[in-house]
């Protein structure tokens, strides 16, 4: 009975942050700075939007932990100071944002952005962690019931996520501008500046796109068994080389993209090197364990 009573607070928290009224499995441990996503099935993908999200089906993901927020500039600089994560300095893919953007992205509590998949992986290894799989990321973003967004099914706007909300000949409009302005006036926000979503995680929609470990596939159907069942890891199980695949997956939308990109099932791919001709200044990440 004492053991049951000790679990009740944890169960209650899980019921609140997942939006569930039914009990969910308690996690075996807690890790500071990370949220625990309990083992179980969730609805992965969607039949209602893009072809690469199909089909929607149940997938089982074992218990894992994910950073509460995107890796910040301060945290990333600690990796550089330790003599790690420095390969990106030679290749120009280390927090690449371009001369026009500069200080708007550089605050300690803003997410590091403009990094390659390789840099993201190296940082997570420095912390004794790893990049999440695409299935893990989507479960963490949507919860077990396949919600459209981390907060539920209500439309995305600037009160819930850092996204683009307008575009025209004079530029784009973001969450920090009152009118259409040049793109370099847009920027990220401090992590945890919006309310948490499923499992207590912040910014799983918007702010920066987030690298995951998987190779990008044109659809879950095309991926086949590697994207189904229990703890799928995507094509070639995410191996260093995967014939027929050139892009890694990025998820979650960003300050640069509109609300549709912030959907929990929305997918896209990008070359992992994120090199000069493919630089995307809105790519960041968070780690899993």
Automatic annotation (TrEMBL):
It holds the Pfam family FGE-sulfatase. Residues 31-288 form the Sulfatase-modifying factor enzyme-like domain. SUPFAM superfamilies: C-type lectin-like. One of its GO terms (molecular function) is formylglycine-generating oxidase activity. PROSITE patterns: PROKAR_LIPOPROTEIN. PANTHER family: FORMYLGLYCINE-GENERATING ENZYME, SULFATASE MODIFYING FACTOR 1, 2. This is Sulphatase-modifying factor protein. It comes from Turneriella parva (strain ATCC BAA-1111 / DSM 21527 / NCTC 11395 / H). The lineage of its organism: Bacteria, Pseudomonadati, Spirochaetota, Spirochaetia, Leptospirales.
């Amino acid at each position: 009975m004492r053991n049951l009573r000790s679990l009740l607070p944890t169960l209650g928290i899980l019921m609140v942050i997942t939006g569930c009224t039914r009990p969910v499995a308690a996690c075996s441990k807690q890790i500071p700075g990370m949220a625990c996503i309990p083992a179980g099935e969730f609805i992965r993908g969607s039949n209602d939007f893009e072809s690469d999200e199909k089909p929607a089906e149940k997938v089982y993901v074992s218990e894992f932990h994910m950073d509460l927020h995107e890796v910040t500039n301060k945290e990333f600089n600690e990796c550089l100071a330790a003599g790690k994560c420095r390969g990106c300095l030679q290749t120009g893919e280390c927090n690449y944002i371009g001369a026009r953007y500069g200080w708007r992205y550089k605050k300690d509590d803003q997410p590091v952005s403009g990094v390659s998949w390789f840099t993201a992986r190296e940082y997570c290894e420095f912390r004794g962690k790893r990049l999440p799989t695409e299935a893990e990321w989507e479960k963490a973003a949507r919860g077990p019931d396949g919600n459209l967004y981390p907060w539920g099914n209500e439309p995305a706007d600037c009160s819930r996520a850092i996204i683009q909300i307008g575009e025209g000949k004079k530029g784009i409009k973001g969450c920090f501008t009152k009118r259409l302005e040049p793109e370099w006036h847009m920027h990220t926000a401090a992590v945890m500046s919006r309310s948490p979503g499923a499992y207590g995680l912040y910014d799983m929609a918007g702010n920066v796109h987030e690298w995951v470990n998987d190779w990008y596939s044109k659809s879950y159907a095309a991926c086949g068994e590697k994207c189904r069942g229990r703890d799928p890891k995507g094509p070639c199980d995410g191996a260093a080389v995967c014939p027929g695949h050139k892009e890694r997956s990025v998820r979650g939308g960003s300050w640069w993209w509109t609300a549709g990109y912030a959907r929990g099932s929305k997918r896209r791919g990008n070359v992992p090197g994120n090199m000069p001709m493919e630089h995307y200044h809105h790519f960041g990440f968070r780690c899993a364990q």
